[in-house]
Write a structure and sequence with these properties.
single chain; 617 residues; mainly alpha; four-stranded mixed β-sheet; 56% helix; elongated
Length: 617
């Protein structure tokens, strides 16, 4: 018999409610646990973002600090080297850069030591240092900014360039058995070279490179810093003023006046008063560099008074004497020993086309005037003649054959001696000038300016005139440096002087004249003018007065300016009429003076006083 199943017992409502509450509690616990971890995660992420922000700010602060600290510095970057060299020397570029940095630091330390020695131990030598330490920035080379790929060093470079920091870059290369070094700074490029003389071009040849780097340091520091430029310019180690409109322009002007070979006793006296003024002393009180330069400049000025104002220690006044006293002199020029004949050397190499040269200002460094000595210079004394032995040009050449290359100190001393010689010659002290030129050549046989100015002196009228020796001296100067236009032009004039008078003017086509005009085509007018004035002076000496008159006219038709050439020419024309009866010469001089144009940049000629006092009929 089938029994019927009873229906299931229904769950009481209280049990279902309990289960629902339990489920809700379980979900609540899960939600609380979930949101608690998330909140903690958010807090941790916020903290990490804070640390990242602070770190980024520190990095930016570091970058800006480094940029500001290096704003006035120059840093030496690794040099580019040939692949053949870098293959053998992987760090060649960095080695060269470090060598240059050491040279720059050594040069700065030398200046510091010199100034410190003369600062009386006051401990406040404030020479501006401009050489930076490259290694300070290498730590940031491998640290990249997040998601940029840019290193900290790249950012430092960019920001530092905004603040004014400069980099020295360079390269080394070989060409035609020569090793070249090219260095760049502030848009300026300096190129140095050395002969390999059979060395392996794949080798580093660090001794040759170091020698060129040592040569470059003065130019680089002069470009990098105005105070360095002033120091080197006033000491004669640098020829160029890199900061003509800088804060120290007045100091540059004082040194320029003193270095001029055209300075007169009166100008020198005025300059000494300016250098000793209380205002200038006060300006240098807080700057030991300026104080050192001021004291050195005063010392150099006093040295010049001993040359052209020998009575200055007694009178304390430097002025031109009423008559330039020249004692009677017995001059003996010994003949050099005979030397074996040499193979003829090619004096003038093939010059590049004129378009390869940029026009430059006419180079007048140490160029003496070819004016005849003043009449007072011929004054003689009745005293017993003094014997002065002067070497001939061939003897000097013979001495130089066996003489070793001059040291940097000898080169600097030679340049200073040559400047003194030019000052003496321009003040009509020819014998003393010739002695000084010979001394300058003895100090440095490769002083092209000393050879050239000796040649110009030997062309001038007077007891020392020797056209043949003048030509030899100028040829020697050209063999040392054939890239100076006025030296080539002077050699051309010397050859014209040695030629037949009727052929002199045709020497304008001589190789030396052509070379001078190829060096700097922009100076052709000035070179032509100087050539014709010199030819006219030669005609005047040879008493061919009509030809002199015509040549003076030709010279002034080329170029008329209110300068010393015009002053000299109009005075010669005045003498042609008043002393040698060349009618119309005086009036021609007045017409030339009336038509003379002012000098560029409102400059005033050293001969302006003579031009202003010239009297016309």
């Amino acid at each position: 018999m089938n029994e019927e199943q009873s229906p299931p017992t229904p769950t009481p409502p209280a049990t279902r409610l309990a289960r629902a509450i339990a489920l809700l509690q379980r979900w609540r616990n899960l939600l609380v646990q979930h949101f608690g971890i998330r909140a903690l995660t958010e807090k941790l992420m916020g903290l990490l973002r804070l640390f990242a922000t602070v770190g980024l700010l520190l990095i930016v602060g570091f970058v800006v600090y480094q940029a500001v600290q290096s704003a006035r510095l120059v840093l030496v970057k690794p040099f580019a080297v040939p692949q053949s060299m870098s293959g053998s020397h992987a760090d060649a570029g960095r080695v060269i850069a470090n060598t240059l940095k050491q040279e720059l630091l050594g040069a700065e330390n030398s200046i510091y030591t010199t100034i410190k020695r003369g600062s009386n131990g006051n401990g406040k030598v404030n020479i501006e240092a401009v050489t930076g330490n490259t290694e300070d920035y290498l730590l940031g080379a491998s640290i990249k900014l997040p998601e940029t790929g840019i290193s900290i060093n790249d950012v430092v470079e960019f920001i530092a360039s905004i603040f004014g920091r400069r980099n020295i870059t360079g390269s080394v290369y070989y060409d035609q058995d020569k090793l070249f070094l090219q260095v760049e700074l502030e848009g300026r490029t300096f190129v140095y070279q050395r002969d390999l003389n059979g060395r392996d071009p794949k080798a580093l040849n660090l001794d040759l490179i170091a020698d060129m780097l040592r040569e470059s340091r003065t130019e680089l520091l002069s470009v990098a810093s105005e105070s360095h430029n002033l120091y080197y310019y006033c000491t004669g180690e640098a020829d160029a003023i890199e900061y003509p409109e800088g804060e120290l322009s007045q100091w540059f002007d004082y040194c320029t006046q003193l270095k001029s070979s055209q300075i007169t006793p009166e100008n020198l006296d005025t300059l000494l008063h300016s250098l000793r003024s209380p205002e200038l002393r006060r300006a240098a009180d807080d700057n030991d560099t300026l104080k050192h330069i001021l004291n050195q400049t005063i010392g150099n000025a006093l040295d010049k008074t001993r040359l052209i104002c020998p009575n200055y220690p007694k009178t304390k006044v430097c002025k031109t004497p009423e008559a330039t006293f020249q004692p009677r002199i017995a001059i003996r020029i010994p003949q050099p020993p005979p030397r074996p004949p040499d193979a003829p050397a090619k004096l003038y190499p093939n010059l590049p086309d004129a378009s390869a040269f940029q026009a430059e200002a006419f180079s007048t460094r140490s160029m003496v005037s070819m004016a005849a000595p003043a009449a007072a210079a011929s004054v003689t004394s009745t005293a017993t003649a003094t014997l002065i032995e002067l070497p001939s040009v061939p003897e000097l050449q013979t001495r130089c054959v066996a003489q070793p290359q001059a040291s940097p100190q000898d080169v600097l001393a030679s340049n200073q001696t040559e400047g003194d010689a030019t000052l003496l010659f321009n003040n009509n002290l020819e014998v003393q000038a010739l002695e000084k030129y010979a001394q300058a050549i003895t100090q440095n046989c490769n002083n092209a300016f000393a050879w050239a100015n000796m040649g110009v002196l030997l062309m001038a009228e007077g007891a020392l005139q020797s056209i043949s020796e003048a030509q030899l001296a100028l040829e020697q100067a050209v063999s040392i440096n054939n890239r100076i236009d006025w030296i080539q032009n002077s050699l051309c004039i010397a050859r014209a002087y040695a030629a037949d008078p009727e052929q002199m003017e045709t020497l304008l086509g001589d190789a030396a004249c052509l070379a001078a005009r190829a060096i700097n085509p922009a100076n052709k007018v000035l070179l032509d003018k100087q050539f014709y004035i010199a030819i006219a002076d030669r005609y005047f000496t040879l008493e061919q007065y009509l030809q002199a008159y015509n040549s003076y006219q030709t010279a002034m038709s080329v170029d008329r300016k209110r300068d010393c050439n015009t002053s000299k020419t109009i005075n010669k024309l005045y003498r042609l009429e008043t002393e040698h009866q060349i009618t119309g010469a005086w009036q021609m001089a007045c017409d030339m003076l009336a038509d003379a144009a002012p000098l560029p940049d409102n400059r005033v000629s050293a001969c302006e006083d003579k031009l202003a006092t010239f009297k016309c009929p």
